[in-house]
Amino acid sequence: MVGGNGRGNRTDQLNEPAGVIVDKETGSLVICDYGNRQVMRWSRQSSTKSGEMIIVNIACEGLTLDDPGFLYVSDSEKHEVRRYRKGETQETVVAGGNGQGDRLNQLNCPAHVFVDRDHSV
Predict the structure, then answer these.
(1) pLDDT below 50 — which residues of the chain?
(2) Total-model pTM
């Protein structure tokens, strides 16, 4: 269903997948393709064996969706967590974004991300 064509950078391949979630609204899989520095969406209903790039140039290691449908993605190289509105490519930095460090406004290689019901990251 996803990948299965060896490691690579084609739309039917993954390279070091680091996280996966199910979009309850569409039933598709959203995958951190860490090795290709992108986030992919794979439809579980489609007969095609390819994914769709939805975010590029990101060192994604973790992701989650909240109830309203915002996608939260960690970027371990930029030391931040970004929020994306469904269907849009413009992001909002919601945690970190001030370089690597141990201050309250910094992160150090964030990986997994969780958002609670109050939208706290």
Answers:
(1) none
(2) 0.88
Helices marked H in the chain: none
Quote the pLDDT of residue 46.
64
List CB contacts of 40: < 8 A, sequence separation 6 or more. 11, 14, 30, 31, 33, 51, 52, 53, 54
Question: Across-strand partners of 119?
Answer: none
The percent helix, strand, coil of the chain (3-state, each to 5) is 0, 40, 60
User: What is residue 48's predicted lDDT score, i.e. its pLDDT?
Assistant: 63
CATH architecture of 1-120: 6 Propeller (2.120)
47 burial via Cβ count (<10 Å: 0-12, 13-18, 19+): exposed
Query: Which pLDDT score, from 0 to 100, does residue 43 have?
Result: 84
Domain map (residue ranges) of the chain: 1-120
